[in-house]
Amino acid sequence: MTGTAPSSAAPLLEVVGLKKHFPITRGVLRRRQVAAVKAVDGVDFTVAEGETLALVGESGCGKTTTGRMVLRLIEPTAGSVRFAGHDLTGLDADALRPHRRDMQIIFQDPYGSLDPRMTVAQLLEEPLVIHGVGDRRQRRARVMELLELVGLPQAHALRYPHEFSGGQRQRLGIARALALRPRLIVCDEPVSALDVSIQAQIINLLEDLQRDFGLAYLFIAHDLGVVKHVADRVAVMYLGRIVETAPKRRLYAAPRHPYTQALLAAVPVPDPFVRKAPIALPGEIPSPAAPPPGCHFHTRCPLAVERCRVEVPALRLLEPGHEVACHLATA
Ligand code: SF4
Question: Are 159 and 96 part of one and the same domain?
Answer without folding.
Answer: no
